[in-house]
Amino acid sequence: MNRRISTLVVALVPIIVFVVLVSVVTVPFVSLGPGPTFDTLGEVDGKKVVDIKGDIKVHPTSGHLNMTTVSQSDGLTLGQALALWMSGREQLVPRDLVYPPDKSKEQVDKANNADFKNSEEDAEYAALSYLKYPKAVTVQAVADPGPSAGQLRPGDAIDAVNGVPVANVEEFTALLKKTKPGDHVVLDYRRKNAGIGVTTITLGANKDRDYGYLGTTVLNAPWAPFVIDFNLANIGGPSAGLMFSLAVVDKLTDGNLNGGKFVAGTGTIGDDGKVGPIGGITHKMLAAREAGATVFMVPAENCAEAASAHLDGLGLIKVENLSGAVDALHTVSAGGEPPRC
Q1: Which pLDDT tens digit goes with each residue over 238-250?
Q2: 3-class DSSP state for residue 112?
Q3: Closest alpha carbon to 72 in 36, 35, 47
Q4: H or E segment to which residue 220 belongs
Q5: Does residue 284 have an active-site annotation?
Q6: Which residues form the PDZ domain (predicted)?
Q7: Which of 31, 129, 239, 333 is catalytic?
């Protein structure tokens, strides 16, 4: 009897060890798969995803313009990794590709959040440029503490320095270079939803320059008198840019850009409207199709990979820039044939 028990115990030991390994031991892989999609024409948590406020007509929209995401799972056990891989929906990639060993997870997440914030800004500028809003010397950020804190705000357009008009950052900087720390400068500015204003700022000192320090970051950007807010939280990376821009264009123009269809897509966007490639295109396409999309906007550089997925019922539109994306959607709405992958 004891011999039988001993034999059983010996046979069970490898099984127990395997179960422990599968359940406890983590693997150096991250799982990537289809993530949630968000309609940029709709609402999330009671807020419009793209909210335009001010003295401007916002047109009604229909259909969908969904941005897409990639889900990500870290800290996987061996068992979890095997189950995800066997599902056929998930891709396992070495963790170092997602979280480089020279950076902490917090640093990577912070960088992704910064990329997302920048994509919102670029999406606004690209859309306003497409809609022919003129450029201005636009305040991007205000240092706090700093000389301009409480007087200028991000989004202000600076029109003149000490009574001298400025049309671009080069002219603005040339005037500042004639000042010294301690000087007072009078700035004429326009503020979104608040009209025009004038403020006097005492310039500070900065070790990086020998002229007066204003404490602002400025750029040449198309300026409009209304505010555009993008209300999506906990989304990282820059790949929502294209769909954000399309939503702004749709809301500020007559008619329905998507012709009432369920359109989804992805792509970075520059402030000049150029659409750039992204990662995880096939995961995003699967998420879009499962959400109900029939049309998917694909950055031109992702076309080969996207076409290889062969997802029935999802038409792929090749996109190189915002203008081309708008034209392609108009073509689809009219029953024509847009550029395809």
Answers
A1: 899 999 999 999 9
A2: helix
A3: 35
A4: strand 216-222
A5: yes
A6: 134-193
A7: 239
- Pair 135, 223: CB distance under 8 Å: yes
What pLDDT score does 5 carry? 62
User: Token pair of 271, please?
Assistant: 């402030």
pLDDT of residue 145: 95
Q: Which pLDDT score is estimated for 83?
A: 80
Residue with the two structure tokens 């950076």: 103
Tell me whether strands 262-265 and 295-299 are parallel, antiparallel or unpaired.
Answer: parallel
Q: If you ran DSSP here, which 8-state letter would residue 148 be given?
A: T
Looking at residue 317, its pLDDT comes to 98
Q: State the pLDDT at residue 137.
A: 98
Residues written for the chain: 341
Q: What is the pLDDT of residue 77?
A: 84
Interhelix angle 322-333/105-130, nearest 10 degrees:
70
DSSP state of 59: P
The one catalytic residue in 48, 261, 284, 318 is: 284
Report pLDDT digits (tens) over 175-220: 999 999 999 999 999 999 999 999 999 999 998 889 999 999 999 9
Q: How far apart are CA 130 and CA 330, in angstroms?
A: 15
3-state secondary structure at position 213: strand
pLDDT of 99 reads 84
Asked if the bond preceding 145 is cis, omega within 30° of 0, the reply is yes
87 labelled catalytic: no
Burial 203-239 (b: 16+ CB within 10 A, else e): bbebeeeebbbbbbebbbbbbbbeebebebeebbbbb
Integer-rounded Cα Rg, in Å, for the chain is: 26
CB 228 within 8 A of CB 106: no
Residue 328: which of 319, 33, 158, 240 has the closest Cα?
Answer: 319
Which residue numbers in the chain have pLDDT < 50?
A: none
